[in-house]
Structure formats: structure tokens, C-alpha cells
UniProtKB/TrEMBL annotation:
EC top class named in words: ligase
Principal location listed in the UniProt entry: cytoplasm
Record bears the keyword ATP-binding: yes
PANTHER family named among the record's database cross-references: TYROSINE--TRNA LIGASE, TYROSYL-TRNA SYNTHETASE
Keyword terms, alphabetized: Aminoacyl-tRNA synthetase, ATP-binding, Cytoplasm, Ligase, Nucleotide-binding, Protein biosynthesis, RNA-binding
Record's subunit section: Homodimer.
Protein name: Tyrosine--tRNA ligase
Role, per record: Catalyzes the attachment of tyrosine to tRNA(Tyr) in a two-step reaction: tyrosine is first activated by ATP to form Tyr-AMP and then transferred to the acceptor end of tRNA(Tyr).
Lineage, highest ranks first: Bacteria, Pseudomonadati, Planctomycetota, Planctomycetia, Isosphaerales
Protein localization: Cytoplasm
Pfam families reported in the protein's UniProt record: tRNA-synt_1b
Organism: Tautonia sociabilis
Amino acid sequence: MRPAAEQLDLLRRGIDAITPEAEFVKKLEASARTGTPLRVKYGIDPTGIDVHLGHTVPLRKLRQFQDLGHTAVIIIGDYTALVGDPSGRSDHRAGLTKEQVEANARDYLAQVGKIVDLSRAEVRHNGDWFSRWTFLDVLDLTRRMTIGQVSAREDFALRLKSEKPVYLSECLYPLMQGWDSVEIRADVELGGTEQLFNLLVARDLQQDEGQPPQVAMTMPILVGTDGKQRMGKSLGNYIGVSEPPETQFGKVMSIPDEPMRQYFTLLTDLPMAEIDAMLAPGVNPRDAKEVLGKTIVSQYHGPEAAEAAAAAFRRRAAGEDPEEIPEVPVPRDQFDADGRITMPRLIVALKLDSSTSNARRVIEQGGVTIGPDRTPVTDPKAPIAVPDGLIVRVGKRKIARVRRS
């Protein structure tokens, strides 16, 4: 195991705060001295099935702890997900059904395994203990926190001030998350900055149970591809870890210049000196963005896929078609007697857009071309003849070849 000072230097990268830092240093020093790994906890509520780069920030830190010889403990919050985490929320988060949570959890670990070495991790479900609890156990847990403590939370205080409801079930969430730390005897817990309240509740519960309290390690919230709001699927500004290489690369190239330092720092292992040089004044930010895109794609798909995605992007930017164009079968009954079809219907049949109204709008904006000579389609109502093998382009990234079936 590396010396504590060396570990601390590595672990500080991309960290917003270590609370309390002096305790963490002592834990790290004792671990290095005795060769006893720290138990580092990260909890995930399976409220959806798409893991995006925002989720990977604490997961990458968890992997870093693993590579330093510590034990990663992943909590699948199948019971906390039934409540819904209120942290950082301006409104009540709707809880999921048990069936929805179970369905989501099945796919979560496969995606998490792209970042964390699951063969060296402990994976626990908090339903393993909460499902055995009686109502008296729940009552006992509620005695560990006062209404004053709960209402002092910034997110709850803001909701109460604006006369938005705060449900009793939400007040249970930090206690449940904290109890997870008691069950697994966590030394460190990772989370976003909005999670600090929950992470500190765990310290109180652990001390009540006679355990050494965990240290809270919080990380910044990754902004989405819009460069403004936090990354999230509902905002359409996310990059999924399971998305195809070309999609990942294209989305990285679309981000504004401002958040690039945050992306490099939180999502890559490139040395900070290298990052500083790439982001220095006078250096073309596009070059840095390409390095960022290839680095991220390499992590999830390998370096060959990253190079291919970059090459495909350059071809698109130069107005060229990709080397491989997906062929999409279109049933013959989609065409009229003369073998024609309106372009909005063809675009939907090729799965290049989800609705004819969206397709119509793209056509009217001049975003659709067909054939080798890139003939623009301008009339969404006019039926067009569609020979087998016709190439259809929608916008800058969507392309397909018609196969009449």
C-alpha cells in the first residue's frame, strides 16, 4: 500500500471537500501503517437504468480507492429508492414501486462494472436489512433526528419557505442512508456536494452505535452538455456510459468550452499539467475537446473505437458520409402504388426521428438531404420516389440507407 501522503495527493483531485479532513488523514495513515484497507461506501438508488458521466464522478473516485488497495462497498438502495432522495430537490421526488426498482437494479451493475472492478467490490442491497425491520425499529430510528435538524436542511427550508410540501417519508431518507453506513461499518462515504447532510447523519448514527464515524468526501456536480445545468437524462444534456462510441464522442465535441476543465479533471486521469497546457490561452479548444472525447470513449469502448469515432466525426464535419451507413428495412406497404412516400413518414420509418411533426420541422429548416449528391428535401408534403439503397440524412449526425423489404 502506498504511503498515506501519496494517497492523499492522488485522492484530492476533483474533490470539493473532505469532512473532517484531519480524521481522514488519520484513517489513511493508520490504514497505510497496518495494511488494513479502508471501507469506502457509495450508494446508488436504482431510480433509472441509464448511468451517465455525472454518475461516474464518484464511481471513478471509488475505483481510485480500489486501485490504492481499499475496499469498495456499493450499496444498491432498493429500499431508499422507494422513498426517493430529496437532496438538492426543489420539489418532492416521486418514489418508485418495488417492481420498478428491481427491474432498474438488474441493469445498473452491468453499467457500474464499466468503472468499478466488481470482482474486488462488496455489493450490498439495503433491502437486506430494512426488509427485516419492524415498525418499532423504524420508530427507534426516527428518534435519532429532530424536526429542527430536518427543517434546517437548505432544500427543505427552501421548500417550506415557498409553501411546497415536505413529506414525512422524505425525512426518513437521510436516516436510512445513514443506517446503511452503520450496517457496513463505512470508513469513508462518497457523494455529490448536495449529499453532505445525509453523509453527516451517518456519522451521528455510527457514533451512537459505538462505531468510528465515517468521513464524508464530496465531489462537484458535473454540468451537462449544455454547460449550464447538472447532467441529467430528463434535461437531455447527458452522455450515457452505454451509448455508442460515435454518440459519446459527438456529444463531447458539442459541449461549450467553459466546462472542459471540469470534464478533464473529473472524468479523466490525464495529468493536470497536460490539461493546463491544452486549455492555455491561444490553444485551439477544439483540439483539447478531441483529446477529451477520445479519452472518454476509450474508457468505455477501447482506444480503437475512440479513434474510429473521432475519424467519423471529422468526416461528418467535412461534409462526408461515414464509412459504414446503417441499412434500415422499410416495408413495401409504407409506399404508395407508385413506390413513393412523403419524407416525414420515411424519416420515421428509418427511425431517424420519433414523429412526423419533428421530421417536418427539420425539413422546413433545410436539414434533410438525400442521395449521393445530397439533394435537399424542401417540401414535407410532396411524395418522393425511393429507390432501394437511397441514403437519407437528417441533420448533421443521423443517416440511414433504405432497404425496401
